[in-house]
Specification:
Oligomer: single chain
CATH topology of the largest domain: Malonyl-Coenzyme A Acyl Carrier Protein, domain 2
Helix content: 40-55%
Number of strands: 12
Order of helices and strands: EHEEHHHHHEHHEHEEHEHEEHHEHE
CATH architecture of the largest domain: 3-Layer(aba) Sandwich
CATH class of the largest domain: Alpha Beta
Distance between the termini: 58 Å
Strand content: 15-25%
Number of domains: 3
Length: 335
């Protein structure tokens, strides 16, 4: 009998597919199955608002000189000691708009900096606010410019919230298309704002419209439709005043060519151009966060490991629900 040869399948997904193909060619006894080696592609993802906690970043500040330097620089840029609120403040104090967004940004960006040479992304993405952290991590924005934009974003959003009472609600257990249809048929302003994972969306808009939509979604079979304790309708048309204010700041900020692709909330595909990044970022506040679609596209383009850079593990949970086949993890820091 001839000596068996090693067969590396091309275009075949598993051992079963290979055996079937070999049997048809009458070669099954002559081949030893050797699975293809998959290239590891690292996707780094950055969380948004809601991931904050008292004490966040203090371990980095105390342990790593580069972290301490950047935290102190942030105090100077912001004009107040955000480190005091982050490390020793209260949960309520950390929820203040001018604090929350810069705090999460700082924790994420500084964490990526202390990773040093081990931080080697093939692609990045950020959930809402996290997109600014991702843009510093892939060298599109400087640390200083990123922090200033995040601070202006937070204050502009707060002002927009004060112009008109508005809110958001989480909807669980309904297909995207049903949520979108109910929103479009509801009187007033209410839209799908966050596509977090299949069966988990957030809607946003005027308080009465969101309340009406929640009732209709329960009637349509939603497992839950729960009003969220937020102060405004983020990622909805009601953020237009904030979008205009932030767009002016973005226009006056220098953007470099990204060192790796970023999958922005708008348009959920790989972006490699500084001008495209800038244009998309201007649309973010009034457009939905299409996290599900972004993660699916990253996996389609080869992402195999997702590392969450920032406080908490919320994004890891969402990624596993979107694409169960990929690995998720938090970063490991070297002393």
């Amino acid at each position: 009998m001839p000596k068996p040869i090693r067969c590396i399948p091309v275009g075949l997904k598993n051992r079963s597919s290979l055996k079937t193909s070999l049997a048809l060619l009458n070669l099954s006894k002559l081949c030893i199955f050797e699975p293809p080696k998959l290239k590891v592609m690292n996707a780094y993802v950055f969380p948004g608002q809601g991931a904050q906690f008292v004490g966040m970043g203090q371990d980095l500040y105390e342990k790593y000189p580069i972290a301490k330097e950047l935290f102190l620089k942030a105090n100077d840029i912001l004009g107040f000691e955000i480190t005091e609120v982050m490390f020793n403040g209260t949960a309520e104090g950390l929820k203040e708009t001018k604090v929350t967004q810069p705090a999460i940004f700082l924790h994420s960006v500084i964490l990526s900096k202390v990773m040093g040479e081990s931080f080697r992304p093939d692609m990045v993405a950020g959930h809402s606010l996290g997109e600014f952290s991702a843009l510093v991590a892939n060298n599109t924005l400087s640390f200083e410019d990123g922090l200033m934009l995040v601070s202006k974003r937070a204050l502009a959003m707060q002002k927009a919230c004060e112009l008109k009472p508005s809110t958001m609600a989480a909807v669980l257990g309904l297909e995207d298309s049903i949520v979108e249809k109910i929103c479009s048929e509801t009187t007033g302003i209410v839209v799908a704002a966050n596509y977090n994972c299949p069966g988990q969306l957030v809607i946003s808009g005027e308080i009465s419209a969101v309340e009406q939509a929640c009732e209709k979604m329960k009637e349509a079979g939603a497992r839950r439709a729960l009003m969220l304790p937020v102060g405004g309708a983020f990622h909805s048309p009601l953020m237009e005043p904030a979008r205009e204010e932030l767009a002016a700041a973005i226009n006056n900020t220098n953007f470099e060519t990204p060192s790796c692709p970023i999958y922005q909330n708008v348009p959920t595909i790989a972006v490699n151009s500084a001008s495209e990044v800038k244009k998309n970022l201007m649309l973010q506040l009034t457009a939905p966060v299409k996290w599900t679609q972004s993660v699916q596209q990253m996996v389609k383009n080869g992402a195999t490991v997702f590392t969450e850079i920032g406080p908490g593990k919320v994004l890891q949970g969402l990624v596993r629900k979107i694409e169960p086949s990929v690995a998720t993890q938090s970063p490991e820091l070297v002393d």
